[in-house]
Amino acid sequence: MISIRHEYTPCTAEPVLPDDLGFGRIFTDAMFVQDYAPQSGWRDARIVPYAALALDPAAQAFHSGQMVFDGTKAYRRPDGRINLFRVERNAERFNRSAQRMGMPPVPVADHVAAIEALVRAQARWVPARSNAALYVRPVMIGAEATLQVRAAHTYLHYVILSPVGSLYGEAFRPVSVHVSHEHVRAVRGGTGEAKTPGNYAGSLYATEQARTLGHQQVLWLDAVERRYVDEVGAMNIAFVYQGRHIRTPTLSGSILPGITRESLLQLAPDLGFTVEETRLDVDEVFDAIRTGTITEAFGMGTGALISPVGRLAYREQEAVINGFEPGPVARALFDALTAIQYGRRPDPYGWTRTLDAA
Ligand SMILES: Cc1ncc(COP(=O)(O)O)c(C=O)c1O
User: Fold this and answer.
1) What pLDDT, in 10s, does the model give residues 131-183?
2) Domain residues of the chain, as ranges?
3) Mutate to test the pocket of ligand 1, among 220, 229, 260 (most ligand atoms within 8 A of CB)
4) Three-state secondary structure string covering 12-35
5) Is the N or C terminus of the chain more exposed, i.e. has fewer CB atoms within 10 Å?
6) Assigned CATH class of 5-165
7) Which of 23, 235, 265, 337, when mutated, tests ligand 1's pocket best, judged by the most ligand atoms within 8 Å of its CB?
8) Are 167 and 303 in contact (CB under 8 A)?
9) For residue 302, how far is its CA from the centre of ligand 1 (angstroms)?
10) Which tens digit of pLDDT belongs to each residue from 225-240?
């Protein structure tokens, strides 16, 4: 079991947070760090004051991009305690990402213990505001100084925390989405299933282009046929047919297996909706929006939880979904999921881990 050294003295003053937390702009004043070497494995686990990292400019991460990360959230409950949401699933995905990038795993129990210890030490940073939370960002990077293109021998694993509001400013504001034909995010057999920064770096140019056209996000199609829907921005996507049947793309190998997606697929039938994982042809989706068969569309991810899609721009045409308003299915799912995450209702699925430290 991991033994964590505390080299951080909590300050007694409450952190002063701005009214508008934004997303990922503010960081707490401590972080978790540990190092890996082949002879010792993971060692020197510590919670230290938040500070810049000292890395060799030849570190493998900078040249081969050997890095992975993940993201979950800690939520303030009405009783003042804190809920961590499905943090084991994040730790497992972190290891799958690490394996894909030739990196060593962090034992899941140790990773969860590290996150718990850090969140406990930083409990006063978990905001008690509606739709706000403490975002947890674990990262692993290849730290060895080498210009050789091979897996590094040494690694750094760290966890930082950020008090966040909702991802797109006002919670639940629909976004306008541009279908990208020119660029793809990931290809089957590539790294799309891994949470590795190169996937995101490769998405930035197309996203900026979509923004210049007045949209907030890109809808990514499969890289081979440029025909099947993969994801929206850095979220999984779902479409609601005739107000009750939810379809989402099957995890094809190029899609990140989202934990929000997985949770909503489990939750939705309990709210009376039907769910289906299938291949979704973008032409058929666009037609179904225009004829009104698709009544809602939304992205699913830890940042926004559920982000309604209000408009789809496809080739030279545009279609508005549900009058650019959040729909009732997205709202029902959002309410049910957040009630569990924030501990407003009992958690029948065992998704939350409650920390006693307030
Ligand atoms: C590319 C991509 N797809 C989907 C998701 C949603 O995953 P999750 O629900 O686990 O946050 C994320 C966010 O982590 C992502 O980066």
Assistant:
1) 999 999 999 999 999 999 999 999 999 999 999 997 655 668 899 999 999 99
2) 5-165, 175-341
3) 260
4) CCCCCCCCCCCCCCCCCCEEEEEE
5) N
6) alpha beta
7) 235
8) yes
9) 7
10) 999 999 999 999 999 9
